[in-house]
Design a protein that fits this description.
cytoplasm, pyruvate, globular, eight-stranded mixed beta sheet, 111 residues, 2 helices, mainly beta, zymogen, autocatalytic cleavage, 8 strands, Barwin-like endoglucanases, aspartate 1-decarboxylase activity
Length: 111
């Protein structure tokens, strides 16, 4: 695990979109996630798991929007975990510290 945004609330689900997840850029920065990076989404409400890529959302908005086919696996208000992974050699992996983000109930960083 390279990065995790733990327990954010889905704010939108847009079925008629190309695909992806839109994430507030403040959350992306805090979690060390970049645009177009592959992520795994785990839905705490229904157990669904999916993989997609990240699109930056408006900074400070709290946006978590599942787009395209992924929108069928969530409802607005669902709680999800967003995880990214990285490949590294064994010695590097032993020393690596992932970026973990625990937002508030409105998907904003706790300062």
């Amino acid at each position: 695990m390279k990065s995790k945004i733990h327990r954010v609330k889905v704010t939108q689900a847009e079925l008629n979109y190309v695909g992806s997840i839109t994430i507030d850029e403040d959350l992306m920065d805090a979690a060390n996630i970049i645009a177009n990076e592959k992520v795994q989404i785990v839905n705490n409400n229904n157990g669904a798991r999916l993989e997609t890529y990240v699109i930056p959302g408006q900074r400070g908005s709290g946006t978590i929007c599942l787009n395209g086919a992924a929108a069928r696996l969530v409802q607005v208000g669902d709680i999800v975990i967003i995880i990214s992974y990285a490949t590294m050699d064994f010695e590097e992996a032993k020393q690596f510290k992932p970026s973990l983000v625990f937002p508030d109930d409105n998907n904003h960083l706790i300062r």
